[in-house]
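One example given next:
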Amino acid sequence: MAYEGILLGMGNPLLDISAVVDEDFLKKYDIKLNNAILAEDKHLPMYEEMADKYDVEYIAGGATQNSIKVAQWMLQIPGATGYMGCIGKDKFGEEMKKNSKLAGVNVHYYEDETTPTGTCAVCVVGGERSLVANLSAANCYKSEHLKRPENWALVEKAKYFYIAGFFLTVSPESILLVAEHAAAKNKVFMMNLSAPFICEFFRDVQEKALPYMDYVFGNETEARTFSKVHGWETDNVEEIALKISQWPKASGTHKRITVITQGADPVVVAEDGKVKLFPVILLPKEKLVDTNGAGDAFVGGFLSQLVQEKPIEECVRAGCYAANVIIQRSGCTYPEKPSFS
């Protein structure tokens, strides 16, 4: 089977500015652990304060880009994956290009002349992370870029598409173009719930894309928020996963499968009206570096097996393996070669 360009991602390329901070810093900027939000004006000074006050690391990130890079790493087949998003014409943008090429991903960035590359503050306390994204250039992605022949060619070539829910705030039009293409050509289209605020405040665009989703990923908090927003009156993650999998579909080619991670608790997979639970690899607390990128890595590992048409058990096992590797390192980074077999 030809793997070149088989998997394509679209999303917000962000440079992670990661540091271990303290409770006071979280309080000062009104941020909660295990959450992801978009920066408001009150958050803007925090990026500089982090750089001045703490030992910061700069790591190329952004949820979809992380997942695609991890899938690429797991596959070890150069050019198997592609990615699109918007960066600025600046130092951080150059860094991002270099990083992605090294990772073996075929990136087609849209470069915005006037806006800086987006950043994401990753505040770590006790190994748990909180994300505050300042999208900047990432917010400037336009569907015109996607429609250019050299970029649309990536869409034509891919058989699997993955887009984090965060991209719904930027270019729902681009998402629907890809989703409709996938439905028309019997390809596999996948998204992530990504964050409680997406389910709450971007409900309309999320619901427009949902019928096209063949796989829906998310974590337990996002699943519960989704349930609350839709008035389902249940906090039971297994029930919620089932209800999401039964949401009407645009195309009958593939049934929808919902995959919900729950930190150290089992992964919930809902398909065909049934739920299966898969235990994760438990990690002693002293080995945990930070949870930044854990969910993204899970998806990346999962996709690396899915594109090889492996059974769902194998996809979940690979997802758990990748997440386990990432949480023992800072940010969404990994060793040179995977040891998954």
